[in-house]
Amino acid sequence: MKAIRKHTDCRWTLLYIERWLKAPIAMKDGSHIYPEKGTPQGGVVSPLLANLFLHYVFDHWMQRNYSEVPFERYADDAVCHCRTELEAKQLKTELEARFGECGLELHSEKTKIVYCKDEDRKGSYPDMKFDFLGYTFRPRLSRTRKGRFFESFTPAISNKAAKAIRQKVRSWSWQLRPGDTLEDLARECNPIIGGWINYYGRFNPSAMFGIFDHINWRLVRWATSKYKKLRGRQRKATKWLRQIAERQPNIFVHWGVLYKNG
Description:
Helices cover 49% and strands 13% of the residues. The protein is an alpha+beta fold. A hairpin with a 2-residue loop joins β3 and β4. The protein is flat. The protein starts with a helix and ends with a helix.
């Protein structure tokens, strides 16, 4: 009975998935588009179905055929850690064939072999950096606790992620809200800024300082629109804001990072 029930549950699951894939897409003009293949762009179930499919197409295949190669995958982005260039080229060729068998193809520009240059790997290669989960992994100059500098292959916030954050900050349009106080602005945006710090500041947090400067610059523009004595005087407004940040670094969470040591 359990085997029959399990088979029935699986059949109903497949039917539900089929209905999702064949469901029409309602357009703004009232018309409907019936997809012939794939999942609808932006559909709430699309990431889930893609993840289930890649779990079979990629994850299980890697475990069966390349169990010695560690990998990470998030949605449709993956990183495989090969030991040699030959192994990486062979894996790339076989993955292209595997995805082709399943009706998919690897992204021609994003799929590449990267040389992880560091203190022990001093060679050179056409590609020596890659982006993954909002981070850019590349060779960077690091320092030991004793002050010695060395080259390491480490992550920091990517340019793409930093650009998206700056666009988000601009969307807050603080300069159009002269009636608010610093505390009002901080209460609204601190949870978001804190989330950025907790995620992107986990590795090489100094790479976030450019974003902090951008946030402060938007606050300077807010100050010049709020106070008559600061209008048209950005240098004075910058000095005014810095004095407040040094005196009360707990107002904004990024101030706590910039001025935590006084």
